[in-house]
Design brief:
The protein is α/β, with parallel strands linked by helices. It is built from 15 helices and 22 strands. An eight-stranded mixed beta sheet has the order 13-12-9-14-17-18-20-21, sandwiched between helices. The chain has a six-stranded parallel beta sheet with strand order 3-2-1-4-5-6, sandwiched between helices.
Length: about 450
């Protein structure tokens, strides 16, 4: 009886053990499935196995880099670091190596690394190069094409995309030399993330503070194109702001455009995963994060920049392009002479950017959208413009002085398509942009 009891107890114990093991197995399986679903739903897979070459230059913001590395790796990406001599004053190679779980590079003339042409292979192994913090000195080297240390040499030798995250004193950021360097880098396709405004370690307040690590990671995710977003894999070209048409070196013809609506549209498209090129005339607005921004002045400059950005899937012509320009703008200021009548200006028509983009051909975007800024008969004029230009959609708005649309934050628009007109209620320009971007996403979803 005792032996039978023992045998029964052993059998029962084994059954319980097997059941417990099976329970744990299935529980773990359920947890893995739930984790995978959550991970996918949040879009974190977008950076899975991506290679980020992080170039760390000198500046107090370098103390945020360990946190940035941790956040990038949380997204599934791999990080390899290049640390400048200035960067070493704020963060150690050992801490970066420990967090990235990779070697940290810093010596251009390392016998071990340069035996294999390390400054070439470092960039070729990466999907993107990120300079954070990007000091004024390193950005100046990038703009001038200098290569006197490993960081600048890698940046000169790369054919991969480059993202800069500027960080410097407000006076350094506002200096004409720095602004010229920034414009040069942008014209070459370098993506700028920040800076932002805030308190600085030097005790001053202003523009030049590096954006937070979470914002940098968001910019990386936008760059890699979150496949969960509806416009992933699409390219949009957006025009914004006014154009300036020279009368002489001092005077010009322009339209009353702040660029707020066009910039908001570029931001909204980028947020939906679209690779976005913003071609903008002179405005007082900061460049939208996650967009390639090209600054122009005249209508002819804008057309050249738009053509250079083609091909694209989406064109949104939100800029207030001057219809005419002076036929012959002199190189010297036109002087006012006492007793003489004002000079007669001979005007010629500017290129029709919307009409040119709408023409049938291999480079015609799949969806061309124009804007109609009207002061009367809004929808009637907009429908006529859509037919005349040959574009797919027209966004019409009332810009009469009483509306406050120009330079204001709100807009009331009508979307004119081949199917008819949609009257949208008054809303902020940011909401107009979001709603238009959503309609664009629906258009491509229906076409698939």
């Amino acid at each position: 009886m005792v032996a039978d009891d023992k045998r029964f107890i052993n059998i029962a114990f084994n059954v319980v053990l097997i059941a417990k093991t099976q329970f744990i197995y299935y529980l773990q399986l359920i947890l893995v499935i739930c984790f995978a679903y959550t991970f996918t739903a949040t879009g974190s897979w977008v950076m899975q196995s991506k290679q980020v070459l992080l170039i760390v230059s000198g500046g107090i913001a370098a103390i945020k880099i360990p946190e940035l590395i941790r956040r990038i790796r949380e997204q599934g990406a791999n990080v390899r670091c290049v640390l400048t001599k200035g960067g070493e004053q704020f963060v150690t190679p050992l801490s970066l190596a420990a967090l990235s779980e990779d070697k940290v590079y810093g010596d251009l003339f390392s016998l071990t690394d340069e035996h294999e042409m390390g400054h070439i292979n470092l960039s070729r192994d990466a999907d993107v190069l990120m300079v954070a913090p990007a000091s004024a000195d390193l950005m100046a080297k990038m703009a001038a094409g200098l290569a006197d240390d490993l960081a600048s040499t890698v940046l000169l030798a790369t054919d991969k995309p480059v993202i800069c995250v500027p960080s410097m004193n407000v006076r350094m950021w506002e200096h004409a030399a720095t602004q010229a360097n920034v414009e040069t880098l942008k014209s070459r396709g370098v993506i700028m993330v920040g800076p932002t405004e805030g308190d600085m370690a030097c005790g001053e307040f202003g523009m030049g503070r590096m954006v937070e690590p979470s914002e940098i990671v968001d910019a990386l995710k936008t760059f890699f194109g979150d496949t969960a977003k509806p416009l992933h894999g699409r390219h949009a070209v957006v025009t914004s702001g006014p154009t300036y048409e020279a009368i002489d070196p001092v005077r010009y013809i322009a339209n009353r455009s702040s660029g707020k609506q066009g910039h908001a549209i570029a931001t909204a498209l980028a947020a939906l995963g679209c690779r976005t090129t913003l071609v903008t005339g002179p405005t007082q607005l900061a460049d939208p994060a996650g967009c390639t921004v090209v600054h122009i002045e005249s209508a002819r400059d804008m057309l050249a920049a738009v053509n250079a950005a083609l091909p694209c899937d989406i064109a949104v012509c939100a800029a207030a392009v001057a219809d005419w320009r002076s036929a012959d703008a002199p190189t010297q200021k036109i002087k006012k002479q006492a007793g003489t009548p004002p000079p007669a200006l001979e005007m010629v028509e500017n290129p029709d950017i919307l009409g040119i983009l709408s023409e049938a051909g291999n480079k015609r975007p799949a969806l061309v959208i124009g804007f109609a800024a009207e002061t009367n008969d809004i929808q009637e004029n907009a429908r006529a413009k859509r037919h005349r230009k040959g574009c797919d959609w027209i966004v019409a708005n009332d810009v009469s002085p009483a509306t406050g649309t120009f330079a204001g934050d709100d807009n009331t628009v009508h979307l004119i398509t081949a199917e008819g007109a949609e009257d949208w209620p008054k809303m902020t320009k940011a909401k107009v942009a979001s709603q238009l971007a959503a309609r664009i996403a629906q258009y491509f979803e229906a076409a698939e």
